[in-house]
Hints:
By secondary structure, this protein is mostly helical. Among the domains are: 2-212, EF-hand (Recoverin, domain 1, Orthogonal Bundle), CATH 1.10.238; 238-297, Wheat Germ Agglutinin (Isolectin 2), domain 1, CATH 3.30.60.90; 342-470. It is 60% helix and 4% strand. The protein has helices at 2-24, 33-47, 55-64, 78-95, 104-119, 129-139, 144-155, 164-174, 176-180, 184-187, 193-197, 206-213, 224-234, 268-271, 295-307, 342-354, 359-389, 397-421, 432-467, 471-475, 478-532, 539-542, 572-598, and strands at residues 75-77, 126-128, 238-239, 251-252, 255-258, 265-267, 286-289. Strands 6-5-7 form a 3-stranded antiparallel β-sheet. A hairpin with a 6-residue loop joins strand 5 and strand 6. Helix 7 (144-155) packs across helix 8 (164-174), helix 17 runs parallel beside helix 19 and helix 21 (478-532) runs parallel beside helix 23. The longest helix is centred in the last third of the chain and has 55 residues, at 478-532. The radius of gyration is 42 Å and the shape is extended. The relative contact order is 0.04. Pfam families: EF-hand_2, EF-hand_3, ZZ. It is found in: Cell membrane; Cytoplasm; Synapse. One of its GO terms (cellular component) is synapse. Belongs to the dystrophin family. Dystrobrevin subfamily.
Amino acid sequence: MIEESGNKRKTMAEKRQLFIEMRAQNFDVIRLSTYRTACKLRFVQKRCNLHLVDIWNMIEAFRDNGLNTLDHSTEISVSRLETVISSVYYQLNKRLPSTHQISVEQSISLLLNFMIAAYDSEGRGKLTVFSVKAMLATMCGGKMLDKLRYVFSQMSDSNGLMIFSKFDQFLKEVLKLPTAVFEGPSFGYTEHSVRTCFPQQKKIMLNMFLDTMMADPPPQCLVWLPLMHRLAHVENVFHPVECSYCRCESMMGFRYRCQQCHNYQLCQNCFWPGHASGPHSNQHQMKEHSSWKSPAKKLSHAISKSLGCVPTREPPHPVFPEQPEKPLDLANIVPPRPLANMNDALVSHASASSGAPTPTKRLQYSQDIPSHSADEHALIASYVARLQHCARVLDSPSRLDEEHRLIARYAARLAAEAGNMTRPPTDLSFNFDANKQQRQLIAELENKNREILQEIQRLRLEHEQASQPTPEKAQQNPTLLAELRLLRQRKDELEQRMSALQESRRELMVQLEGLMKLLKEEEQKQAAQATGSPHTSPTHGGGRPMPMPVRSTSAGSTPTHCPQDPLSGVGGDLQEAFAQAEEGAEEEKEKKQDGKDRG
Length: 599
């Protein structure tokens, strides 16, 4: 009894381990539910090492365990689910280097307990195939586009149209993930969730589905899904910017810039809890940045944008054909081998050498040779046609597999022919024609093989030449030449404008220096006259009006002087100096007038 209770407590601790670790991260302090949900699910993804498994590896695991042949409503036991998860992690460890191996047992335990808690809350010990596929396809790593394409393939019919009932079932399953991390009140499933995603469309194709799911903003019930992918992309992004709240000299992850406060920026650790300082408020609109550009890059981008050199923004996803792609049928390309394996070939070889087969069987085999030859000729022709149709298949693993199958088939044929060569001498005359036809077939196959190799080499060269355009081709493009000519002309105009501005600046500096010299000379004259003529009335110096201060002409400020002022746009110090010079000139005139009156 004590051992059973101890094992039960250990099992409960394992089931709650992931949730205990998640609570220790203190994600609940995040103010916005979207970021809170995305952070929690990202933590689960990394803790279970699902971020190391992309969608293609997950599809391969589904096929290896036979889930692709089962109906979506089929229920599988927890033990079979554990087998599926085990195959995912064991295959992952085979792909990882020895220095980055994961703990397979711990990962299996964490993910299995999380899936049971999310999808088997009633404790029945069974999950549907669609639940397993929806959860693992959503939580694994890889591109969001690839995930959505796979999900759409599970919800569409043979004509490529989405079945709304299956999409509704997908929402039910995928929205159990936020509920599992205690965010059900914000992102729980409702009956109107489907219509909120597609309110008007009646026929949804793949491109419409991708446009809706990858829009900005996405559907409200799934707004956490693209954010979880953005979190994965910006985890190691560095921003050399100081946070306006915590005064940290740099940021990692997201950067948030206020649209109302000047140069007010927050790191994600300060923005998520809702910290604010100074005139900034949490009600201000913030802009999320996932990268940092230096001022030089911003300036070059602004200049390029003004010159029209910035390329148009690419669409969020490529346009896929409306009709679903049919699976590749290799039956016409690589027919099944006549023998199951090499052991069968050895058995047939032994039986042929031990006892002479009946003439009817030998005759039937020799009569089948022309048909086999025709089949192989058709096989080679179709293979060459396929190579001509798509040069990209040349370097694919499927092509290598097909070649291996062809070689294995020919080896089996040659092994069977070698067995026929060990027959008694009485049968040699009977099989002479058959051996001759076989030699002719081998010669023809060798010629065809050489032709295929030459065709492969030619197609590879054409593909390389097409993918790497030469500079001569670029020079022959009139559009590129015209754009280059316009850019050079614009560059020359800007350089001329800059040189003219620099020349005018030098002239202004020379004029300014001359004016300053005149002012200094005038001040020296006034000082000499003041010391040389003591009879001058002191009221002029004491009654001199003080110049009014002028605001610095910063961006957006309005000058306080009159628009007709000839010193408009000059700084306050220069205006004061000119005012002093004018007053000195007026005093000099008054002195001369007094002298004339006395005379």
